[in-house]
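Figure S4 source data
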Amino acid sequence: MSTTIPPIAAGAPEALPYDDARMPLPLVQARTRRFVLRVIWSSTAFLVVSGVLGLLLRLRQGQVIELGDNFWYAVMTAHGLGAFIAWAGFFLMGITFWVLMKVGFPVRSFVLPELMYWSMMAGVVGIVLTTLLSGFGGSWVFLYPLPFFSAGQWSNTVTGIFAGSVLLAGVSILAYCAAVLQTCISPALQARKDTLGQRVGLTFGFGLLFPSRFKTDRGRVPYPVLPFAVNAVDMFLATLPFAALLVLNIVQSVNNGFSINVLLAGNMLWAFGHPVVYLLLFPAAATYYYLVPRYAGRDLVAGKAVAVAWLIALTMNLFVWAHHLYMNYPDGENVQQTLGTIMQPTTYALVLPSALSLFSIAATIYKSNFQWNVASKFLIAGIISWLVAGLQGIINATAAFQETLHNTLWIVGHFHNMAFLNMGLLIFGAMYAFLPELMGRGWWNERLGSIHLWGTIVGAYGWVTCQMIQGLEGAPRRWAVLPDQYLTLTHVSLGFLALLVAAQLVFAYNLWTTLRRSPFDDPTASFAGGTQR
C-alpha cells in the first residue's frame, strides 16, 4: 500500500511514495535519521583523530617536533585511511541514505546499512591497533611488497591483521553499494512496466535518453539517483580486486613462501585506489544535485547530457587505474606501458561527468534567487575547488608530466585539494544544511559559521598551495624529514594549518553549543534553511 511520510520534528521531507510493506514508513524515516546521525558523529570523531595525526606529520617535516621515523610512517598510514575513508568516505556513505529518502527513495532494509556501519567501525579499530600501537608503516596504499620488508619495525602477523582490517573497510564499502542499489532499483521508481530491466534502465538515466521506452509515473527519476547508482556499481566492481589482494596479503603473512607479482599487485591496488576517489566524488555530486536546487529555488538545469555523462562515468571509471603506474614498469614490460597509454584518454573522458555537473550547477544558480547562507557558501566553495582540483587532475593524468611530478608533494597537494577542499567543504556544507532537520534544532550562531568557512578556505588553500609549490621544486612525498631547501615553505604552510585548525575549533564550539539547545517546533528555522540568527 502506498503512503506518505508525515512531517516529524527533525524535518519535513518531501512526500515519499512507499510500496514496501516490510516496515511502516514513519519508522523507516525515524530509523534513517538515527542511522545517519550515528554515521555523522562517528565519522566526525575520525576527522578529529586523523586531523591531529596529519598535523603531526607536517610538524615533523618542519622539524618542529621529533617523531621516530617508523612512527612517522605509521602515523601517515593511519592519517591517510582515517581522513579519506573513515571520515570523508564514511560520512558521504551515511548521508547518501538521507538524500535518497529526501528525493523519494527510502531505505528498504537496514541489514546492509548496519553491516556497512559496523564493518567500518571494526576496520578502523584494527587499523589504529596495527599502525599506532604495532608500528605498521607501509603507507595507506601499502605498496606491495613493502609490508613484508619492514626492516624489523613490524611483523608479518601485524601485516596480516592490518590487511584484514582494511578488508573489513572493504566489506563496509561492498555493503554500502549493495544497499544503495537495493534502494535505487526499487518500487520507488514507479516504473510503468515494473520489471528488473525497466528499473535498472530508469536508475541509470535511460528514462531521460529513451522516454518512450522507459516510463515512470514520477515524470522522471530524480537526478541525485544517477551518481549514487553509478557509484554503487563502480565501487562494488572496483573493490573486488582490491579485496582479493588483501586476502593474498593475509595468506603471505601466514605463509612466507607465498608471494605476488609486484606489477600485478600494483594493478590490483590501483584498480581500487583510483576509483575510490569517486566513492567520495559521486555522492558529493549527488548531494550538490539535491542541495543547490534547494537554495536556488528551481530544478537542476540538466537533461539528456547529464544522463550520457553518468553512463560514461559508469564505464570509464573502471578503466583509469594505470595512470598511477606510468613510472612503474621495467624495461620490456610492454603490457604495462600499453595499459598506461590506453588509460590516459579514458582518464580524460572522466572530465565529462564533472564538467557537465559543474555546468548544470552553475546554470541552476544563474539568474536564480539563490539563498546565500553558511551552508550554501560552503557548497559553492566546494564546487570551485572541484573545478580547480579537476584541472590539476588533467595534469596528473598526462604521462609526460609524470617525470617531474611523480612522487612529489605536488601529488599530495592535489590530493588534499580534491579530498578536503572539494569533498570536505561539501561535507561541512551538508552538515550545516542537514543537521537542523536531523536534530530538530537550528545552528546556534551564523557568525561562527562564517568564521569557520573563511578560516577553512584560507587555511586549507594556503597549506595545499605550499605543498604543490614544493612539489614543483622537487620536494619528495612520503619523507619524514624533507631536505633543508624546503623548510621555509613547510613553516609557511604550518601557519596556514594553524588557521585551519583554529577554524575547526570554532566549528566544534558552534556544534557543541547547538547540540545543547532545545529542539524547536519549526525545523526550517535555521540559517542553513532560511531564517538567520
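Figure S5 source data
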Amino acid sequence: MRELLYPLIVSSLHGLAWTGDHLLAVDPRTGYLLKIDVNNEQTAISNGPAVDQWLDVTGLSLQSGEVWALREDRILRAAPQSYVLETAIELDYLAEGLALSDTEIFVSCQRSQFIFVYDRTTGERKRILDAPGIGEENLTFDSGSLWVCDSVEQTVYCLDPETGRVRFNILTPYAKPKGLVFAGTCLYVSYSQEEDFIEEDPNRYNRQSIETRGKTFIHRLKFITKPDVPYTLSNGYLIEMTYCEETAGRESVALENVEWRIALPADTPRQKLVEVEAIGAPFREVLIEGQRVAVFSFDALAEGEIQVFGWRAVIEVHGIKYQIAPDDLDLNLEIPEAIKAQYLIDDDDLAMDTRRVREATYDAVGDLTNPLEQMLAIREFVYDKLDYQVVNSISSPDTVLLRGKGSCGEYVGVMLALARLTGIPCRTVGRYKCPEHLGGFGTPLEPRYNHVWIEFYLAGYGWVPCESSADDPGQRPYSQRFFLGLPWGHVEVGKGINFEETNVRGYSLSDLSINHVRFKILKELPAEAETL
C-alpha cells in the first residue's frame, strides 16, 4: 500500500472508510463518493447517479457492509449499490464527524465542543463526551477505541469511547487533517489545505499572478507510543541540514586568533544526529552544558579575506506530543537546585525586575499553583497581549508588552520572564524550521527566517517543549497543537546555549559574515525504522 496518495477529481476530502481493499472518501464540495485504490491511486466515483444527495456530507463510516454518512443535522444510511441516502437520525444541531461501533453511533459537533453518542438500534442519545480539541473533528472507531482528528489542533486523539478520556494523542505531520480510517493496521489521514501558486496568464500584462488552489491528499500516519514514556512519536523524516558562514559580508578589518562556535543539532527524544561533516574548514567538537558545538579556529583572517565554513548534518526527526495532564504532576517533587540556579534568573535582558513584567506575571498566573496550568496560562496571556510581527532586533519583555507586537524571539522573551518569575525553569530552543515540501525529496529548501521556541521544566518529567508564536491566530480559543509538542520540521540546535558566537569583540555576527542555511528532505522513514 502506498503511503502518500493524490486521488484524482478531488477538491476536498472529509471522512474516510475502509472496504477491505479500497478506501472510500467523500468530497462534500462535489458530492462524489470516491473509491480509491491504495496501491495505485486509481479513483472511481461510486455514487454517480446520487452525487447531488452527497453534497455537504462530511462524515463517513462503514460497518458490517453498510455505508453511513453525516450531512449537517442528519445521520444518513446509504442504500446498497445505488448509494441513495435515507435519514436514520435527525439531530438538533449541526455536526461534522461520524463513527460507528457495533452498537453505537458517535457524532462530533464543533459548535458545542462535544461528541454525542447514540444507540445504534434505537437512535436514543446515551451520553455526551467532551471533544478533545477546538477545531472541526472527524471520527473513526477501531479496536475498541474512538479515534478523532482535529483540523485546527493538527492532532489525532485516541479516546476511551465510554469516558472520552484521551489515551494518547498524535501530532500529524501536516496541517488540516479532515478524515481518518484504519486500513488493516495502517492509519490513513486525509488533508484538505490551500496553497498559493504562480499562475501564467497570457492575457495579463505581466502574465503572472498569485492565485490560491486546493491541495488534497491522503497520507499514512505512523506513530509509536510506549507505556514507559509520556509522549508519542509520529512520522519520521531523514533530512539534511547545511549551515555555513561566508566572511564576504564582514567588516574590512584584519582579525587574529579567531574562534568561531556553531552549535550542532542535538540528540533528543524526537531527533537523532546521524552524521555530521565540516564544510570549508575543519572543526573540533566540544560540549557546552551537554550540547555538542563545532569550534572553528583561524590564526588570522586578513582584511577582505573570504572564507566559507560550517557543517552539513544528516538528522532523523519526528513529530512529538507529550501526554501530561496537570493531575499527573507530583507537586511534592523538587526541581534540582542546578536547574533553578541556571533557569530561574534574568540572564538575557528579560526585565524581570520591572514593574510591568512583574504585574504581567500576576495577571497571567493569578492564584494557579499547578506548574502545567501556570505555563498554559502564561502562554495564553502572551497570545492575548501580543500580535506576531517580524522585527530586525529583539527588545526586552517590558518594551514588547508595551508595544503589543513581537517576533517569535520576543514571544520567547516574555514567556521566559513570566515563567521564571512564577518559578518554572525555562530555556530557549531553536534554531530553524525545515520548510514542508510534500513529496519533494532531495529538493534544496531555504528557510527565510530562523526560529526559536522554549522548553520548560516539570519535576518528574524533565524538559518539555512549548512553541512560542505558531499557535497564536490572533484571537481565542487558542489551539494547544504545539503546547507539549513539536512538529517534525523543527530542528533543535542549541538548548539553553548560544547557537553561534565568536571571541571577536566589538563586532556582531552580522558585521563579520553572511550565513547560509539549506535543508533537503531525503526520505520519509519507514515504520520499522522509528525506534527512537
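The helical segments are 337-343, 355-365, 371-385, 397-403, 408-422, 509-512. The CA atoms of residues 151 and 527 lie 24 Å apart.
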